[in-house]
Amino acid sequence: MSSTRQKWFLDKAEQSGFRVLEKSKELELDISSPVFHKFGKNGHEGTIVGVDFKGVLEVTNRQLFIRAFEKGIGRARSFGFGLLVIQPVL
Fold first, then answer.
1. By residue range, what is the domain housing residue 36?
2. Which residues, at least 6 apart from 76, have a Cβ–Cβ distance to it below 8 Å?
């Protein structure tokens, strides 16, 4: 299952103008266990699955990356999911 989440993230990374760096031929990508968030509105119920991805990335396309940073990459962005939080590597 983790490989499915990893594939999703790597696909989104490519579409969003960045890539995850490797260390010793393995991706430096930590994937947290999923957290399930239930919600309801106007008589409809649903569940959103939240996962944290942590790793070191390299920007490959500045314009795509800026757009992804401003708008997010997940499907549940209106609920605050799929947002990128970045910190420079010193």
1. 2-79
2. 48, 82
